[in-house]
Amino acid sequence: MARINIENEDLFENPAPRVPVALCLDTSGSMDGAPIRELVAGVNQFFDAIDKDEDAHDAAEICIVEFNSGTKVIQDFAGVDRAQRISGIDARGATYLGEGVNLALDTLETRKKMYSDTGVLYYQPWLVLMTDGGPNGSAAELERAVERVTKMIGDKKLTIFPIGIGPDADMSVLARFSPTKPPLRLQGLSFNEFFAWLSKSVARVSQSSPGDAPPKLDLEGLAGWAEL
Amino acid sequence: MSFTSRGDGARIKAEIVSSLLARLTSLSARLECHVKDLASTMLAVATHGDQFVVVHIGDGVIGYVRDGELRIASSPDNDEFANTTTFVTSSSAITSMRLLRGSLEGVTGFILMSDGAAESLYNQRTKMLAPACLKLVRLLADSPTYQTKNPIHRKRLRKFLATRVREATKDDCSLALLARLPALSPSSRA
């Protein structure tokens, strides 16, 4: 009787499909002190939670873009194994929100091209936009950012989580980025709760397959610590 | 008239989807669910005389062996994202269907796999089938009929799928093989 003689080298090991998550963070002067410390702690907790989840660990790739009087990629897209934990962020300057979102989208497009070029499958990308104020950068850049984001959402190419920090966050501007669901305003500085919820949501998406119902993003679960 | 000799491919696609939807509608009534609940991809190979037909909706892969070499007949249709594809129940089922036909000359087998099995048997970067596919087709082709119907033989194939292939994925895992011995050349017949 013929035996099935198939060795490991007769099989392929394709990379896990990726969930790209771009964190676009306001690091303007008004975030100085407790807000920026809590934000950094929350982001690092997010990395730790992703690290602990078997599915999310293999799937999530996270990038961090900051905006103040300029914009910068603090962390380019990387899995939690390679991503550096943040030791601290110097909050300063103005709130170039539009410029920040555009840089996050550009970084995302570059990553998607890399996935396509290397045969890595990926899920719909996520953009987490967090600010405690209102934009005061270029109006044209802000309009361009709103237009790009809303088109991608309309085309089902992006999921956005617009988050207002504290009472001075301009929720009407955040709402322009999110035509399908209202922005959230954090109660106090509940970054830890938000990022714990975000890591669980990434884990759910990374387990989904074609034909599955879209993973339910449990916005009701946020009601205890955020205002819809 | 068989599919292999008809020239109206667009009509054939519509007929196939219509037939599949009729069966799914009947099944959904029996199961008391919506037809959409039975959404699935579809991979099929049929032979008729010296011709073959390949039908494919959605993801998964259909490969074949010609002149001893693995080739791709139809690749995954994943749109842009990993968790999106076309189903038999999708409005775009007809337009996205791959319908191919060809000669069986030199063809010794076909291998059809769902997306879960493709994680081990298809390289997403190079778009090539794993060497295991050739071994599986050869194994089936070389086995006499009494062996392929033998419970032990079937158990070994099932075990391969249930362990090596299934454990490497969280997706649906199906594999279908169709194989035959190579035709004898005139010189070897003599």
Automatic annotation (TrEMBL), chain A:
Signal peptide: none annotated. Residues 20-205 form the VWFA domain. Transmembrane segments: none annotated. InterPro entries: ITIH, Tellurite-R_TerY, VWF_A, vWFA_dom_sf. This is VWA domain-containing protein.
